[in-house]
């Protein structure tokens, strides 16, 4: 235990995940320290914690000995502006990035870290145009469950060697190991932008797409009955395209988004769901009477469910429409009796991958699909 004691501190009352308290907390400042910590803790169960903005997502772990806090794993390793590439340590807050006239086009809540965003596969309104973390990630460094450091991908967009490893870790909820560095593809920061806000129904989306205005995002909110479109580009182009949308949707142009833009529709202690459906099914979700909000242009929406009955109703609607629905967060009183993931194709393959990458099932046990 000597090495482990040097690399950790005793946990406090704030060091828990889903109400399950940890015994120890480690906060490595480099990939090398992280590898040493994981190797020293090879008999312990582990959950990785970044900014904590999504730590309440998913089921509680079955057991928790050690929290690995990544907030000392911060900073930009490299910014190759000419190649539109950046290398970031996993604990770096996304809202701290200083990339000049370039951007990492990931929408995230304040305080969210690079590693946490990748681990949960989170994305926001602009996913419609720029893609998700899975699309923007071109390289990754991870520490596997035995302390081995593995790198995949590279710092060149066309270099796809090992890229599948990055895809594998994206959205894995920390169940396959610890992410320490990520390489991302960047985009130029647009010179101008505008939001066109309207009370047009979600059925207007095909007309928006047919108008060839190249929207960055199309968002809807059932509570306000509002539809909002983001357009970006040159000042002249944005002015022309937003004017066209203003006329098409009988809306108004604003420099600022609606107050609900990019925010989850559920209260802090509520049941929050992620709904993914074909674009043709978006209007049906908006018209259910539930609090539904999200991308009408990408078919990824978020809902606040009042109870388990509403969860089942929304999930059935998604599945019938060719999509799926997962519960991201729920109060402790209902989490244990709630099927958070629903039917998931490929579960047997996921179990084999877990067995290969984490044979002892030490990382985030029980936090993922099928109790993985």
TrEMBL record:
Pfam families: FAD_binding_4
Record keywords: FAD, Flavoprotein
Keyword Flavoprotein: yes
PROSITE patterns per the UniProt record, alphabetical: FAD_PCMH (PS51387)
Domain FAD-binding PCMH-type: 17-189
Domain of life: Bacteria
Keyword Flavoprotein: yes
PANTHER family cross-referenced by the UniProt entry: D-LACTATE DEHYDROGENASE (PTHR11748), GLYCOLATE OXIDASE SUBUNIT GLCE (PTHR11748:SF103)
Designated name of the protein: FAD-binding protein
């Amino acid at each position: 235990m000597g090495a482990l004691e040097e690399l950790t501190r005793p946990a406090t009352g704030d060091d828990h995940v889903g109400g399950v308290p940890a015994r120890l907390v480690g906060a490595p400042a480099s990939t090398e320290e992280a590898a040493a910590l994981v190797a020293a803790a090879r008999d312990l169960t582990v959950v990785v914690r970044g900014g904590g903005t999504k730590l309440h997502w998913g089921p509680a772990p079955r057991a928790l000995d050690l929290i690995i806090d990544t907030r000392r794993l911060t900073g930009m390793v490299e910014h190759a502006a000419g190649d539109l590439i950046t290398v970031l340590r996993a604990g770096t807050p996304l809202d701290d990035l200083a990339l000049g006239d370039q951007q990492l086009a990931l929408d995230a809540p304040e305080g969210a870290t690079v590693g946490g965003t990748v681990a949960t596969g989170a994305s926001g309104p602009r996913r419609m145009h720029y893609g998700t973390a899975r699309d923007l990630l071109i390289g990754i460094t991870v520490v596997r469950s035995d302390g081995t450091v593995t790198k995949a991908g590279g710092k060149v967009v066309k270099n796809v060697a090992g890229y599948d490893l990055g895809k594998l870790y994206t959205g894995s909820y920390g169940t396959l190991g610890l992410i320490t560095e990520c390489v991302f593809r960047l985009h130029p920061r647009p010179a101008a932008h505008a939001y066109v806000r309207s009370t047009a129904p979600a059925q207007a989306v095909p007309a928006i797409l047919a108008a060839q205005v190249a929207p960055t995002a199309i968002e809807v909110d059932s509570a306000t009955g509002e539809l909002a479109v983001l357009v970006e580009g040159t000042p002249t182009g944005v002015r022309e395209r937003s004017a066209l949308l203003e006329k098409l949707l009988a809306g108004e142009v604003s420099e600022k988004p609606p107050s609900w833009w990019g925010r989850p529709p559920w209260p802090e202690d509520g049941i929050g769901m992620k709904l993914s459906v074909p674009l043709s099914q978006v209007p049906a979700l908006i018209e259910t009477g539930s609090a539904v909000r999200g991308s009408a242009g990408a078919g990824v929406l978020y809902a606040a469910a009042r109870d388990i009955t509403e969860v089942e109703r929304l999930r059935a609607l998604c599945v019938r429409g060719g999509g799926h629905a997962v519960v991201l967060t729920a109060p402790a009183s209902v989490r244990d009796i709630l099927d958070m993931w629903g039917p998931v194709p490929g579960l047997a393959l996921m179990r084999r991958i877990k067995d290969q990458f984490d044979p002892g099932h030490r990382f985030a046990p029980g936090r993922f699909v099928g109790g993985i």
